Amino acid sequence: MHCPLGRCCIVSVGLGVLWLLFTLDVPKRVEDDQARMAVKVQVAALPSLRGFGEASEAAGSSALAQGSSGFGMHTRLPATVSKRRAQVGAALPTAGAYTPLRGGKRERPGVREPAPRPLTPPLASPAWLTVGISSRPRPGPEPSGLLHTLLSLFRATSKVEQKRLTVLVHLAGADPAWLGETVLHISSLFSPQILAGQLLLIHAPPDAYPPAGAGREPCSEQNVDHAFLMSSASKLSEFFLLLEDNAFCAPNFISHVQWKVDTLRSQPWVFLEFANLGVLGKLFRNGDLPTLAHFLLLFYREKPLNRLLAHFRVLLAQKDPILCTPFLFYHRATYYPLNDRQEASGAYRKSPYAPDNPPAAAFTDMKVFEVHFPWEAYTLDESFFWTHNVSAGSHLTVVLNQPADLRRVQVLTGTVVDGKCALEKGQVELGYGPEGMPQRCSSFVLLGRLLEGQLDQEVVPRSMGYQVSCVRLLANANQTGGLIVRHIYLWEEHARDAGHLG
């Protein structure tokens, strides 16, 4: 009796051990299989940059992934965001000729229509805001300020805000070397944003543009660039914010934009303006983007982009622009050498959008502290002049080394985001007749009064801008607390056309 009972105990223990080993081994195998599957998916999802720009576009061996838009765009997107391309609406008709295809479809000559390549499931919900940027190569060692703009954009947004944000960049132009280098730099600097689906890059091939000699001026290329950009962004989010590739963004701008949208929710508008420079900082509803893209393609040769946008706004019954202050976006002034000889001599050519700010000295009778000085308000970087407890009649005056013909003056006071420490009551004056040592102007003429601490005004009549020697910011009332003078920007009349050196 003891032997059969002992054998039964041994068999039971053995079966229990085998069952335990089996239950522990199966989950481990499943986890190993899942890990191997995840690695395979990640390897397949990350496109390689090797050989980018070397293969010809005709061979179709570029490292940029094929896009799904009917414009024949080539899109470099990771696996986590490639499905968004399939959500973009059908392509808008372009201004070029079309040829019939079988099945009643039409296609532009020489433009391929690649099929979408979804690698991941669709996103649970689109972003609240898409920031769109179109960039082209420019002459000089620093072809564009795109990288600086992207750095400013992501640094100005918190982790929570970035979850509601998609940045769409259109790399326009036919230079494969610039395209490859730009994609390489963006991929190395912003790989977390790319993998998270927060940064998308698109490229429209050259044959999608009007042929040379058919009204293909810089402004027409810019219009077509932005038509592609807006069409691709039409279903990515609820709102679309247009920036330029040389912009500086205020901190937490998304929260301020959303607050303004909520404030104006009951009012009809076509687009809001969070800057007053060119096309920078304009906010659209994404539902209007297909119509706007079509509009730009129809009239791409008629007007520059900023004037077409203004005309589009009027056509949709928004007569006056809606400026949202304080402004959240500004142009970043960039300088680069013209050539080796001018680089050795210290001569630089500036971006065509940047102010000129000819050589000058800055003086003030306000209190000066050891941290911020008057001349910092006249620099082209992000430094500023700070003072405290301003009295009526106090001034900050810029005295030019040589009289200049000015066409535009911009004075910005207060903080970038909330406008604190702005000059509440003040005016800007132009001075003439320099005299004395140190120099000062013998007479001044009122240019304009500050509105919410800011002035951006063309010099009218033009004769008033000739031979200006001083620009003076004058306080009209006592003001307690701090005062920040961020920028005093000057544009010369002939500097841009003559290729001003400064």
TrEMBL record:
<protein>
    <recommendedName>
        <fullName>MGAT4 conserved region domain-containing protein</fullName>
    </recommendedName>
</protein>
<feature type="compositionally biased region" description="Basic and acidic residues">
    <location>
        <begin position="104"/>
        <end position="115"/>
    </location>
</feature>
<feature type="region of interest" description="Disordered">
    <location>
        <begin position="98"/>
        <end position="123"/>
    </location>
</feature>
<dbReference type="Pfam" id="PF04666">
    <property type="entry name" value="MGAT4_cons"/>
</dbReference>
<dbReference type="InterPro" id="IPR006759">
    <property type="entry name" value="Glyco_transf_54"/>
</dbReference>
<feature type="domain" description="MGAT4 conserved region">
    <location>
        <begin position="129"/>
        <end position="319"/>
    </location>
</feature>
<dbReference type="InterPro" id="IPR057279">
    <property type="entry name" value="MGAT4"/>
</dbReference>
